[in-house]
Amino acid sequence: MEGGRSRTGRTLQPKPGMLSMTVQGYLRNPHRQIRLIPVYIGYEKVVEGRTYLGELRGKAKKGESILGLLKAAKTLKEHFGKVSLAFGDPIDLKKTLDQVAPCWHENYESSDKPKWLPTAVRALSHEVATGINNTATLNGANLCALGLLTAPSFTLESSNLSHFIHFSQKLHNQLRHKGDAPVNHQTSEHLIAEAEKLELITRLPHTYGDLLQLNEQQALLMTWYRNNILHLFALPSLVAFCFNQQNQYTRNQLHELLSTLYPFIHRELYLPWQGDDLHHQIDAIIHFFTEQKLLIDDGKYLVRVSPYQEQGTLLTLMARPIQPSLERGYLMVALLLHFGSGSFTTEALTTECQVLAQRLSILHGLNAPEYFHKPLFHQLAELLLSLDYLQSDEGGHLTFGSSLEWFSVQCRPLFDPALRHSIRLLTHQPKHAIKKQDD
User: Fold this and answer.
1) Coil, helix or strand for 86?
2) Which pTM value belongs to this model?
3) How far is the C-alpha of 316 from the C-alpha of 293, rounded, in Å?
4) How far apart are CA 345 and CA 412, in angstroms?
5) Per-residue pLDDT at 397
6) Looking at residue 34, what DSSP letter applies?
7) Average pLDDT, the chain
8) Alpha carbon distances (Å) from 271 to 92, 264, 333
9) Among candidates 401, 392, 394, 404, which has minimal Cα distance to 346?
10) DSSP character for 183?
11) SS3 426
């Protein structure tokens, strides 16, 4: 579907060719029933991890060769854990076409390429990618990655990591991510032991309790595994993120804020909820957080517990996985607002955002190459256009009005003041000289 293997561990934007041919083939013989089956394949450890990270940092993809195959013989003796295979709900092609292009069966000639075809293929590809994500499985590698990559210095006490994994499993198993995701009943101790056996994490024995840590190389590799399941925890993480700098909200205030933020992770991570389904899922997450005493519902406000309490620490950790996605959006909006309407084409904007994000990641010690992955910024620019925060003029320059400023005002209080200050400095003094292009 993606036209190649993901170098970041995320589901990539699907390529339209195969689906387009499938739809056109169906149009020639619409009496057949065609269903697409989303298939998820998950790994506890991949052979190509270091190669992927090198390519993310700009290294050229290494070609296959007989010599490379012989060199790989030693690697294949290592322990790589288990492979998970899961199948999502079948997608009925006719049903999707009926929803996207109700007149699809009228006046079709086999030599034609219907005008509605690109729209239908985009909708179908999003449905397939979402179906694949819905069936993602949890394992020791991705759960340890989710916990340790959110911790300062990538280090947690063994008991704290075990508690976080147990909480994440319970959250996942109870909410079930649209009902398709397989349940995981392994103990947190077993999952941690498996990650240690795969040499993905390091245990530091200590008199007052062992510490579990990622060294620099492990931290880089573990971003791939965390991204395998980031979408499963994206909405709970977004709810928790809203309480990073704010202690309380009314339920209506929280729903309104989440409705503003959600589109920025919905498309990037192929999340399944829209409309009323989204608000039902948010309410389910709020109920779970209050049940687990991360939030307190006093009848008027939802209040976070103290970050210095054990449950408050869990809420802080749960908020961090989604933070980089939101920071990228805030960086792009800040850059646009500083230079003004019409200052960038889409290509110039995504290039400049990539450069600034790379610098920001160094300044804040974010050891994750995907943080400044250019396709994510391109996808973000397209999203801002589709939501009408941006418009494109005849010359291809991006223009905007007061709605973008409103969005920035809504988001600003959510981010740490030190990060906001760094972004403001970067956008006011960019490394590249930006000038308005006339052609």
Assistant:
1) strand
2) 0.90
3) 13
4) 25
5) 96
6) -
7) 88
8) 19, 11, 23
9) 392
10) P
11) helix
Cα distance between residue 195 and residue 184, in whole Å: 15
Q: Looking at this protein, which amino acid is placed at residue 47?
A: V
Question: How many residues are present in the chain?
Answer: 439
Identify any residues that bridge with 85 across adjacent strands, giving them in sequence order: 41
Supply 136's token pair: 């993602």
Given pLDDT bands bounded at 50, 70 and 90, which one contains residue 267?
Answer: confident
pLDDT at residue 436 in the model: 44
Q: Which residue has the higher pLDDT, 223 or 51?
A: 223
- The structural domains of the chain, with segments of one domain joined by +, span 17-60+75-134, 140-319, 323-428
- Which numeric CATH code is attached to 323-428? 1.10.10
CA-closest candidate to residue 385, choices 290, 270, 278, 267: 267
Return the sign of the alpha-carbon dihedral for residues 382, 383, 386, 391.
Answer: negative
Angle between the 310-319 and 158-175 helix axes, to the nearest 10 degrees? Answer: 70
* Confidence check: pLDDT of 439 > 60: no
* Cβ pair 436, 342 in contact under 8 A: yes
Contact 315, 234 (CB under 8 A): no
Alpha carbon 285 to its chain's center: 18
What backbone torsions phi and psi does residue 204 show, to the nearest 5 degrees? -110, 105
CA quadruple 414, 418, 419, 422: dihedral sign:
positive
Nearest residue to 402 (alpha-carbon basis) of 411, 415, 389: 389
Q: By the 8 A CB rule, do 350 and 428 touch? A: no
Is residue 214 pLDDT above 50, yes or no? yes
Q: Can you read off the two tokens belonging to residue 360?
A: 């920001």
